[in-house]
Write a structure and sequence with these properties.
- The chain is mainly α.
- It has one domain.
- It is built from 7 helices and 2 strands.
- The longest helix has about 45 residues.
Length: about 230
């Protein structure tokens, strides 16, 4: 870890710029959510209309993958998407680096997705039925199913980290070569890529969570068809 990135160190506990930026983003989301929901109205104004449009878009995206459990999954996926969008775009602020360019931050997000996948699966299916899907369609595949859980979590963390790090490095190199002759195209590229990476990470998280839940639904349908 870069020692210059460490702000406070208390024994093994280290507070880095990534941690501070992440806390700041979490606080910003909390404050904005509190302010927006204080004065909700049946006749919404422009701000409430925009927020409702964002929430509806997220809900539609979740329902397109798993309509049956959309209401349960949507708060987690929506919060993840909103956090990632703000985190990825935070590097546009001078002197601020996006938390997602730090492998420790993306690893933490990937672990949250990993734990949430099992959390939703166990809550909806029950522990016994959820663990049974690792033995499907054959117990021989158990080691491969366990390995896939680990590899996709690692890939989720490394993908976001690599893309955001390369994006910032590419923008820096272009600025060093061209100076400020092309700031607007670079800025637009950064915004588009940041939004795309947030969408991809959130969509993969949604697919993983929904896949764990739907494994029980598909197995139940097959059993129903066999008895029909």
């Amino acid at each position: 870890m870069n020692e210059q990135n460490i702000l406070i160190q208390l024994g093994p506990l280290m507070i880095t710029m990534t941690v501070v930026t992440t806390w700041g983003i979490m606080g910003l989301i909390w404050v904005c959510s509190w302010l927006i929901t204080r004065h909700l109205s049946i006749d919404p104004g422009p701000l409430q209309t925009a927020v409702e449009g964002i929430v509806s878009s997220i809900e539609d995206a979740v329902a397109a993958v798993d309509a049956q459990h959309a209401q349960r999954i949507m708060p987690f996926i929506g919060s993840l998407w909103i956090f990632l969008v703000i985190a990825n775009l935070s590097s546009l602020i001078p002197g601020v680096h996006a938390p997602t360019r730090d492998l420790s931050a993306t690893s933490a997000l990937a672990i949250v997705v990993f734990l949430s996948t099992h959390w939703f699966g166990i809550r909806i299916q029950g522990l016994k039925d959820y663990l049974r899907h690792y033995l499907s369609p054959s117990p021989i595949l158990l080691p491969f199913n366990l390995i896939s859980e680990i590899t996709r979590t690692v890939a989720l963390a490394v993908r976001l980290f690599g893309n955001m790090m390369s994006l910032e490095m590419a923008a820096l190199l272009i600025l060093l070569v061209a100076g400020f002759l092309a700031p607007v195209p670079i800025l637009m590229l950064h915004v588009v890529e940041a939004l795309v990476q947030a969408y991809i990470f959130g969509m993969l998280a949604l697919i993983y969570v929904a896949g764990g839940i739907q494994s029980h639904t598909l197995r139940s349908r097959k059993q129903g068809d066999s008895h029909a």
